[in-house]
């Protein structure tokens, strides 16, 4: 088993260790959308998958939706053995990388807190986030970057690795909690 570190924006998972599974697709207001989503993801979706596939991004940044769609199309066609981002939980390789991720992404989305948990799993697919976070001048440049992401190539030095852990997975209890106080992130609880 390998240990990874999940930075949970908005502290949604609660404080205890838990088993995180895929959520069944349920769209009562649109049976045709529900049928399409179930055909694509018959086992269900992760929170990330629900957010992008069904609801749009929670911070109103809909420009990420076409990127996630293109990434999924390329993965499904060229790299089908790699788990979809829509059925995965994301984690960092080190505790410090999880802290950095939590600080950067929670602040950008104006969240008031984030927590860090250990995730143990037998396997994960590890990719450099900088391929998808970088600006690209053409669609072709973006497509090449997505292929490099799925091929697990390092873009930056050091790489900004993220582990895709296919659900279901066992997520440990909180080991750290951070809250935004007076213009900075403060560790309000540290168990580790």
How is the topology of this model organized?
Elements: E1 2-9, E2 18-20, H1 31-40, H2 47-55, H3 64-78, E3 88-91, H4 95-108, E4 113-121, E5 125-128, H5 130-133, H6 139-150, E6 161-166, E7 169-181, E8 184-190
Antiparallel strand pairs: 1-4, 2-7, 3-6, 4-7, 5-6, 7-8
Helix pairs in contact: 3-6
Please provide a written account of the structure.
- 33% of the residues lie in helices and 28% in strands.
- A hairpin with a 2-residue loop joins strand 7 and strand 8.
- Strands 1, 2, 4, 7 and 8 form a 5-stranded antiparallel beta sheet that branches. Strands 3-6-5 form a 3-stranded antiparallel beta sheet.
- It is built from 6 helices and 8 strands; from the N terminus they run ββαααβαββααβββ.
- It is of the alpha+beta class and 192 residues long.
- The chain has one domain.
- The chain is globular, with a radius of gyration of 17 Å.
- Helix 3 crosses helix 6.
Question: Can you summarize this structure?
Answer:
This protein is an alpha+beta fold.
